[in-house]
Structures are given as C-alpha cells and as structure tokens.
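Minutes, project check-in
Item: structure for the 85-residue chain
Input as provided by the requester:
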Amino acid sequence: MDDRAGCDEGNEGLRWSVVKNVKLLRRVERCLVKAIFRWQRQRAKEVGVLGKPKGGVVSFTQMFSSALAMAPHLHLLVPEGVWSN
C-alpha cells in the first residue's frame, strides 16, 4: 500500500486559494527564493568567500499538470554557487 495515498486530498483548498490569489503564490515564491539565497550565502561564507555573495534565480509558475489538472507549482533554476566582488 502506498503511504502517500490520500496525501493530496487536504491540499485541494490550498490549491484553489493559490489559483484565486496569485499574490499568495508570488509570496511563497519570494520566501522560497530568499531561503535558498540565505543558505547559499551562509555556505559561501563557510568556505571563505569574501565580500557580499549574491545569488541568482530564474523561475516561472506552471498552473496545470501535464494531464491539464489544476496543479499550480513553481519551477526554479538556481546556480550551484554565488557571485562575489
């Protein structure tokens, strides 16, 4: 038996909240990107990067799955490193 069976059922209300309120999805995206950048800066300092390291990201929102079901989600392209002066 799949332990994940039924896990998605509770997310239906959240899914529609995101669809109705795109600002909410943008806020989630910003929080996610900030968390990734914070982690990258911390790791950069741990390995001795001088200056103020900066990250970069390309992201887009996909609202439907390949089966055309409503499934808003984010795609992020994040480099493995940071830029520093």
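Outcome recorded: The longest strand covers residues 70-77.
No further action items on this chain.
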